[in-house]
Amino acid sequence: MIALLFANGNLDPSPQLHTLLGQVNLVIAADGGADHCTRLDITPDILLGDLDSIDAATLTAYQNEGITIKRYPTGKDATDLELALDLAIAKGAKTVWLIAALGGRWDMSLANIMLAAAEKYAKQEICLLGRDCTMRILHPGKEWAINGSPGQRVSLVPIKGDVHGVTLTGFEYPLIEHTILFGSTLGISNVMQNDLATVQHTGGILLCILFRAYNFP
């Protein structure tokens, strides 16, 4: 099951988003993320949050349409996006795309990246769609396929401690059972040699950033 979660950050206008819309089983708008849905002419399955960011007209329209709305108090212990992610997992999502979770406030962007890497989501594939890149959280113990094109730039950043047993194939700078230390820049700006590259590691968590071959205006 694939879920699409709309946050309230900068919206990516790429064709990849429109492709994803044809594949998903569940769309959740986290508060002001509903306004992005309106601009894209998308009706989410669920709206949730403290509803302090959503446009009043959008909220009224959702209420009139009978959209499922889950309202939370403002003084809560989790962001609206975390609540949305928890709900998507509870409903059986195995792959979750976070849309408009990057850009705007630095604290929110960083928190959303760290949220995606939380241990409670280790069994899911969590991806963040940005304006000029796609981010994926890579947990250890499996081979991750990176689909792109020759010359496309990829950065691999340890996001939780040192990352052990890193093996990279299909890159300009391959590695074999290497350790990338937390805070190291070793994994920055690698380059794909073909349409497919792979990443494997035995311990730690990697943030994989696949930059687009071109940028949108």
Protein described:
By secondary structure, this protein is of the alpha/beta class. The chain has two domains: 2-131, Rossmann fold (3-Layer(aba) Sandwich); 138-211, Jelly Rolls (Sandwich), CATH 2.60.120. The protein has five helices and 13 strands. The chain has helices spanning 15-21, 33-39, 56-65, 80-90, 106-116; strands at residues 2-6, 26-30, 46-49, 68-71, 95-99, 125-129, 133-138, 143-147, 153-169, 175-180, 190-191, 196-200, 203-211. Strands 1, 2, 3, 4, 5, 6, 7, 8, 9, 10, 11, 12 and 13 form a 13-stranded mixed β-sheet that branches. The two termini are 32 Å apart.
Describe the structure using short key phrases:
single chain, 217 residues, alpha/beta, Rossmann fold, Jelly Rolls, 2 domains, 13-stranded mixed β-sheet, elongated
